[in-house]
Each structure stands twice: as structure tokens, then as C-alpha cells.
Amino acid sequence: MLRLRHERVMDSKTGGLTGGRERSPRGARYEQKRDALLDAATTLINEHGAKATTLQAVSHAVELSTTSVTYYFPRKDVLAAAVFERAIERLREFVDEAAKEPTPRERVCRLLELHIRLRADVIRGTDVSIATLSEVRTLDDPIRLPLLRQYVELFRATRALWGDFPADQKPLMTARTHLLQETIFWMPVWLARYPIDEFPRVHRQLFELFDLGLAVPGATWSPADLPRCADGEPTADGENAAPNFLGVATRLINESGYRGASVVRIVDELKVTKGSFYHHLDTKDDLILECFRRSFRRISAVQRAAAESGGSQWERLEATMNYLIDLQFEGDFPLTRTSALQALPIDVRTDLLARSDRTALRLGNTLVEGMQEGSIRLINPHLASQTITAMLNSAYDLRNWAIDMDRKDAIRIYASCLTQGMFVDPAKILGQA
């Protein structure tokens, strides 16, 4: 087990982090330098991805020689493991602090508060971000598997914020936990657009969304079925085979990250030649970018199809959510996980994030008009649309969770986390199955 950044504990009175046991001057200096390396590596991984973060880049960031860095971390993968282990430890500290609250509502509210406070400190320059855990999937098994085991423990601790529950409620609690974590992980993308003094208001509005949901009282989940090809993809192989490449590449990106979707793996799975690949796409980068662009186009196509189907804005929203969650649970040609954006060049990433924002804006307009007509509860449409975006995009990770359930029930249970809220009586949700 690699040593972690600090042996930090939460101050129960202030909610802040306090230092661990006292160390000798030599030990303190060692920890300070090690922490500086981990801070620099965290920033680089969040900006460029784990594969692109080198010992040389880290040494340059802290003005040390590469030889000095190897004294603390002999190899790049050891450094990456330490960064991610520290990230999981910091996330667990927040969960453990939130768990001290007396009720599930107060625990989830406290967890959101801690993460929003961290974002404020990062913007002020008084703390560093937590490393984005999506990059763990890019690591080799000897490094990745122990980290995944630690993440499973973190997930279980987060799920325990809802308290004890019978076994038949576990799928619902798992879905709620998944959405909570994915919202927290996506938060840095949009939260910085608010002034820091607005963060407490954002916290209240986000928790209210999780508490009460999107739906007005009395609304039920009964989405209309959109046409099978509502996302604009052909239902059978056409004359252009590029969508096959995109489907395989998207699954590999989602499972192994941007750098894990190699041309060799793609053509091996499709049982075609590299020449066939390059007949349709010039480079792997072209393929990856087209995966993202195609995903955004598909989401927009579904939103347009839902709008054309008529009905209230609530009915259009639930039709959109139903179609896209089903697509993600199917898993053959899912949406590209936005977590893979991290490894893209910054200019390309900025462009794709702008595309993601436009998708969220379309959702936001649906929410605004739904509030005007009274079919959707009064909420902050910006943060709600970003939360829906995180929910839909991360649904692919729940495909194994959904496989043992009737598909319609799985979609409804997952959607209920946001449509009905995270604290509604589980019997009310599960009783509809």
C-alpha cells in the first residue's frame, strides 16, 4: 500500500481538514516534497490524462530533477497509483465526514457541501483538485485492480449514507449512489462559471433537486417510445461501415479511456484490416473526435424527435431520457463518455465541452418551458441540465447493473433518482415494477 498524502482527519467542529501526527523535521520535509509532487501530478493528470503525464513533466512543474523525483516515485505508474490512491482517500474523508450527520438527507447535503467548498478553495488557490478517477481505467492491471478495489469500498461507504436497507432495495440505492458520485465528478466542469459567493446558493439548489426531483407532485413515469432510429443511426448496416468503427471505438474509449482505444484493438474486434479502417478515417484521432461529435449529434436528434412527438415538456423530457438511458444500457453503440475528454488536447477538449454545453442548453430550454407550463418543478435549469447530462452520459457504467432487470424497470428506477428525487420511499419506486 502506497503512503497517502496526509494522515488528515476532519475537524468535527469546523468541517475543515486538520493535520495528522507530528513528524520529525526530516520526515516533514520528505512529506512536503512528496505532497508537492503529488499536487503537480494531480494537476497534470487532470489536464492531460495519466498516460501523457511523465516524470519529466512533474519534475519540471516542481523545479526538481527527474532523478530527484524517482527517489520518491521510481516509475511513472507508481506515481499515478499514488495520485489516485490519494484521490480515493480524500473522497473517503468527505464521505466519512458526511456520515456523521443523523439522516440520509443531511448526509448527502453535507457531502455536496464539502465538495462545493473544495471547488471554492481550488479556485482561490488554497487547495488542489482531486484527481479525476476516470483515468484509472487507462492503467495496467497490476496498478488498476488494487485501485478499483479501493473505489468499490468508497462506493459502498457512499451508499451507506442512506442507512441500512433490505436487499431488495439495493439496486435503487446503487443507482442513487451512482448518480450522486457522477454529479460530483462532473461538477468541476460547470461550477466554476458561478461566482464563489453564489456557491452556497448553488449548493441549496442542487440538494433541492436531489431531494425533490424534477417532476411535479402527481407526475408519473410513462415515457412515449420514440422511433428506433430517433438518434439518427441506421438500424442495419448501410453502405458506409464507419458507424461500426465508431461503435467499437466508443465502447473501448468508455472502458479503457482515450488511449486504450487503439486501432489494433478496433480492427481486431471487427475482424477487418487496418487498411479498411484507414479507408474510412485518416487517423485514430479523427476516429476519437468523430465518436464525440457523433454522440452529440445523436443526443440532439433524440431531443428533436421527442419535441416532434408532441405532449408537455415533461413528456418530451422523459421520452428523451428513456431513449438515451436505454441506448446506454444496451451498450452496443453507446454515447462516448465525457470523462475521456480529459486526455484530449486542450483546444479540442474546449471545443467538445462547448458542444456538450449546447446539448445541456437544449435540455435547459425544455426545463424552462416545462416550468412555465407547470409540468416540471421550479428548479435551477442550468445545474439541472448539467446533472441530467451527467446522468445520461454515465448510464453506460450501469449496464451490468441493469442486465438482471426488465429493461423498462431498470430505466425507470435509474431515472427516478432525478425525476422523483433520492429520498422518496423506495417502496413507492420499486412497487411500480
Automatic annotation (TrEMBL):
UniProtKB keywords: DNA-binding, Transcription, Transcription regulation
Positions of the HTH tetR-type domain: 31-91, 239-299
Region of interest (Disordered), ranges: 1-30
Biased composition (Basic and acidic residues): 20-30
UniProt DNA-binding residue ranges: 54-73, 262-281
GO molecular function: DNA binding
Lineage: superkingdom: Bacteria
PROSITE patterns for the chain: HTH_TETR_2
Designated name of the protein: TetR/AcrR family transcriptional regulator
Organism: Aurantiacibacter zhengii
